Amino acid sequence: MNNLLKDNAALVEKFRSIRTPFYYYDTELLDKTLQAIKKETDQHEGYHLHYAVKACTNSKVLSHIMKAGFGADCVSGGEIQACLNAGFPASEIVFAGVGKSDWEIVLGLKVGIQYFNVESIPELEVINEIAAGMQKVARVSFRINPNVGADTHANITTGLAENKFGIAMEDMEKVITLANEMKNVEFVGLHFHIGSQILEMDNFIALSNRINELQDQLEQNGIRNVKNINVGGGLGISYQDPDGQPIPDFKAYFDTYAKYLKLRPGQHLHFELGRAVVAQCGSLITKCLYVKKAATKQFAIVDAGMTDLIRPALYDAFHKIDNLTSNAAEETYDVVGPICESSDVFVKDYSMNATKRGDLLALRSAGAYGEIMASQYNCRSLPIGYTTEDI
Ligand SMILES: *Cc1c(COP(=O)(O)O)cnc(C)c1O
To answer: Which fold has domain 27-277?
Structure first.
């Protein structure tokens, strides 16, 4: 099988002259991914994609997504600002988050975002009050906690009653009624998001069924002004096989909603995919500093660490690692970073081409929740993100 990075000798040669560690975003693959999404959403009336910006806020990546015509889903004022800087129209930005600060609400109102995904009654009251002070009307959608599980890591499940996100289903009518009575908010829809890295379509079917029940219930009680249904994001990618599955199965994903979710006439369906849009186009490129042999194993010590890519330490996540500059017979390594933490391990007992000091390694599928989660712990520099156009 073709390896998208390793088989590109000219690219690997260019990598040699760049200071490591750094992120590389394959914007050709990104554009193909965006076209694949467009092809599906265009087939369905009223489907809209708001890219979940928190997955990757690299300005050049954002610019490609903006140019493809997608909106944005933000979870902070900083993200709203990053999207405006990248050229996203405010009218295509939605804003979620359990703890919106007053200044973030003010910013959203000032620039005129599409709507706020409101996560509690106290938040609704504050938005109404701030909007009144600014003589504006805030469009609000309610994030409902659907108590639907997801077959994914516990740290990235968000739609269970025990999670901190959203408004309990039992309170849904109360909060809509409350909003309908408020002068400075306009109720525009319902929002859901059950988790991340979901590959079982059954989870999205369960969410669709729950939304159908909730919509029936609302109609029975005379509430008919739900303009938008927003089902969040969560579609996963193949971390095991980035070259075999560089583009996620968007057809299966969108077809699942088309088949199971019963939209009412004129209703719009919003999606907030993050990971599935950007993960496969990004790699973290690092250099092997030392190979250390211990009694029972050998360590490949590289110059990237958990400060550059925290997913393995935080979620037990797996990233495929390719030695871009060796074709020697495979050996087994623990690939570890330089940070003074025992959890600074990318992978254990991993087979890859025999590795020596100076080899360039690529941690694949690192475009989502990679660069944006980097920290400066140990006084390290933040990694730079380069795109195909830069190199
Ligand atoms: C994180 C998040 C998303 C995106 O999740 P992915 O798994 O990256 O698709 C969408 N909506 C909300 C509200 C989120 O918090």
So the answer is: TIM Barrel (3.20.20)
> Considering the domain 9-21+280-387 in this protein, what is its CATH number?
2.40.37.10
Q: Please identify, by atom number, the ligand 1 atom nearest to the C-alpha of residue 369.
A: 8
Q: Give the C-alpha separation, 34 to 288, whole Å.
A: 33
Can you spell out the DSSP letters for 212-267?
HHHHHHHHHTT-----EEE----B---SS-TTT-SS--HHHHHHHHHHH--PPTT-
Pocket test for ligand 1, best of 33, 54, 190 (most atoms within 8 A of CB): 54
pLDDT value at 365 more than 90: yes
Short-list 221, 233, 159, 227, CA closest to 190: 227
Is residue 79 within 6 Å of ligand 1 at its C-beta? no
198 phi and psi angles, rounded to 5 deg = -100, 125
Least confident segment among 28-42, 148-162, 359-373: 148-162
For residues 88 and 61, is the Cβ–Cβ distance under 8 A? no
Distance of CA 263 to the CA centre of its chain: 25
CATH 3.20.20.10 intervals, the chain: 27-277
Residue 164 confidence (pLDDT) above 90: no
Q: Does the CB atom of residue 272 touch ligand 1 within 6 A?
A: yes
228 closest CA partner among 347, 315, 139 = 139
pLDDT, tens digit (0-9, with 9 covering 90-100), for 98-130? 999 999 999 999 999 999 999 999 999 999 999
List the structure tokens of 98: 């359990």
